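Quick question about two entries, pasted in order.
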Amino acid sequence: MKALVINCTLKKSPEPSNTAALAQVVGDWLTENGGVEVEHVRAVDLDLHPGVVSEAVAAGDDWPAVHDKLLGAQILVIASPTWLGRPSSVSQRVLERMDAMLSETDDDGVPVAYNRVAGVVVTGNEDGAHHVISEINGALCDLGYTIPGQSWTYWHLGLGPGPDYLDDQRGHDWAHKTGRAMAANLYGTARALAANPLGAPPS
């Protein structure tokens, strides 16, 4: 089984990413307890052109390779910081490109996002995590991903400015415990779908 973690931080590599650090907790559980092959992609490092298609929209567009990774993974984690109480602009770019998956099916007419599970990781120093989770999970559900119960985790220290996740250990125990539960629920649901896959929607 494979999992893809798309980190939608605004920070390019090699700058440390708070969002990557929390998403790593989820990925580590999947690898250590489920034997899942986990790949982490930092979207801001790629040249993702605006658009709602899976094909390259211009020379140098890196989206087709990401699309291939999505089709190769049974588990997807979208990880985003909170800015102004909303998902990052990078996460919106990723979801807009994923929009094309709405019309993509396999040879049996099954939408390509069916029988795949997804969840969300959020970090930030202001409230808004539940809003970010609902926006991203809502989009993934529209595409056809299965969203298990409690398939999210987040970290923040309340209203207003404050320290970053990597700079403050407060709240880590809860965020990590919730992240491990998230990983277990994603893995369990992915296994269930693999054993009893959804078919094509009724005509």
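Here is the second entry:
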Amino acid sequence: MSEEAGRKPARVVVADDQTVVREGIVMLLGLLPGIEVVGSAGDGHEAVELVAELAPDVVLMDLRMPRCDGVEATRRIRSEHPGTQVVVLTTYADDESLFPALRAGARGYLTKDAGGDEIVRAVESVLSGDAGLSPSIQRRLLERLSEPEPSSAPESAPAADAPDGLTARECEVLVLIAEGLTNQEIARRLHVSTATVKTHINNLFAKAGLKDRAQAVRYAYANGLVRPPTR
């Protein structure tokens, strides 16, 4: 008997909040060699519960889901059930999706245009202790590693010292607003989508009670996040 024939199929749970997408992934996986789908979940909370109940080898995890998103579900699974690996399968490949998922413990990251063979390779890779990353994600990681380190100048305050509970990223966005950058320019500077920038702006405006960018600039100066140029 060959090694392939003697190997047990990987037991997989699929987590995706879109029913049509989830059922399609389950159907696709059912046709692939070496994979057995043992359950499917409609959100991250349900995914964590299924892992506790079924102890699968791998969870194919969407990121943007209600109640408990994929990043938090990944963090809980890797903390509470370390025998289960997580491979992200998502539409999004921006930095704001990729890096939090990897930091949470995901060992693989694929976008939903991945083919069946690519999914099988990713599952096999994470089960053998390797990373299961699509070629585009590998390129993005290499690009990120080759980028210069962000400036350590005192224009932006650490989150621990930030006013009104602003996060480090929200402070960063606020500083760039104060520099006069548009949303599109901020997105390019931070390597994220414009929609992500808008979300950060909405959050920081709500926390700081700001109504417009002019108020944001005054707020940034008043709180020492940026300083007037020296003469």
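Reply: The first helix runs from residue 3 to 6. Residues 150-159 have pLDDT under 50 and may be disordered. Hope that helps.
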